[in-house]
Amino acid sequence: MIAFSPRLVLIPFLVFLCASAATAQNTLLTAFISDTHFGVGKTPDGKWHPYEDARWATEFKLFLEELDRQGNGNTDLIFNGDTFELWQSLENDCTYPDENLSCTEQEALHRLGIVIAAHQPELDAIRAFATSGANTVVILPGNHDVALRFPQVAAEVLRAIGAPPDRVRIPTESYWLSADGLIYAEHGHQIGRDTNKFSNWPAPFIEKNGVTYLQRPWGEQFVQRFYNRYEAKYPIIDNIMGESTGVKYGIAAEGILQVQNAIGRFVVFNLLQSSFTQVGQFLGGRDGVRWDTAAIRKRGNRFFAESIPSDDPLRAVVEKAISDGNLGIELSDLKDAEIQSICDVRAAIIAEDTRNHKTPRLTPCPKASLGGLAAAVIASRDSIFQAHLTDTLARLRRSGNTKPFSLFVFAHTHDAEASYSPFNKSRSSWKPIVVNDGAWQRTISKEQLENEMRRRNLRTQEVLTLQPEDLPACYPVVTVPPYSTTPRSFLRYWKQVGNGWMFSDTCN
Description:
There is one protein chain. The chain is α/β, with parallel strands linked by helices and 508 residues long. It has one domain (6-239, 274-288, 371-504): Purple Acid Phosphatase, chain A, domain 2 (4-Layer Sandwich). 37% of the residues lie in helices and 13% in strands. It is built from 15 helices and 15 strands. Strands 5-4-2-1-13-14-15 form a seven-stranded mixed β-sheet, covered by helices on one side. A five-stranded mixed β-sheet has the order 6-7-10-12-11, with no helix packed on it. Helix 2 (57-70) runs parallel beside helix 4, helix 3 (105-118) runs parallel beside helix 5 (151-161) and helix 9 (276-283) runs antiparallel to helix 14 (373-398). The radius of gyration is 23 Å and the shape is globular. The chain starts with 10 loop residues before the first helix and ends with a strand. Mean pLDDT is 84; it is low at 1-23, 257-261, 275-288 and 368-377.
């Protein structure tokens, strides 16, 4: 067992908390973690099942104990979705001819029972935290544990934790709002054109022949067709940040995979969710640019393949899907704004290649100019979040919460982000800050993975032989110290240093 050394905890963090509490009106420490993905546990021989991402019960317990200590027993802890991995199963359950249908309530309860049996130590740690001082715990549903929207499933989770009902709750509204209305949290799978989006959120149900099923979004279908198939062989394939990166390494390891139908939706999701921040760093700030969408639409579905770099193995998969007629999406399904965004990303990749003195791996969209791409790319991301945050505020107002929130915390992408201001360049007087609390599991970025490849002298085909235990022992958490007027968030990391653990500002 790894020992915990309190000397390793950063002193400035404690000093800041104490100083803030002295003048605060909101005297709580608020913390957000997500995507623990408590799953199927171990195989009968005592080894971790390849599906299992949550192998860290000891450091999870130490983390909660230190969080309790730093908050002086006065902390709101929000599990911001995907606490439980209820998409992956060891049985042929929740499967129906209609692919839009997922688990019934009883099937979801069965899956949850396996997870609870595998992760009772973590649930005991949550109970210990929730019953210490005046701490409280809120568990929000994400797309992987959307079954929490079933009343019996939520009740079984609360029973397994075993804390008083005023200490742990699973809100039916599926979001969390601070008592003063200034902090809002949700998992984030409903933002923009997400492949994991539910049609009638927060009611993710389909009624058929008198039976209630969970809706199975396309994202779940893809997980079961791709990740479940290859995670059994390559356990870290979904621990690599950026869904497309894991897919690419899977293709490198196995050759051109025959991914079943609808790969096009994944491609669109991947292109629309590209790293706008990284793109902006390469392009600098200039005036905006527009693309000739009418000319682009004449290209038809070839546009999708042409938007993937020539050296990306995913391109061959998409080209084959187009040739076979099973891409699963048509260019006509995209809005002009989405085409604009994909062209922004294409141009940014071209600019990056040019800057690095490489032959461009893509051609620009029609009527392209390399000026102003940073502004255009940033604007495309801004527009997605502006729309979602504006809709969220309107929904809150309809339910009687009239005060606009100033901090929006989401997760879902596994990519922690300390601060983003989608309204920063707008004329709006409302400028909420957006924060992503990342994934409380061992993950690795593309850059870290490339460094690890060099350090271990691994070929591309060998990358996926790494195990989750080989990844950095570092877990993100967003904290909001006590405040008097405006909440201020901090992205922290629970990190192993030697034989102890500490909060740090970085995973490096």
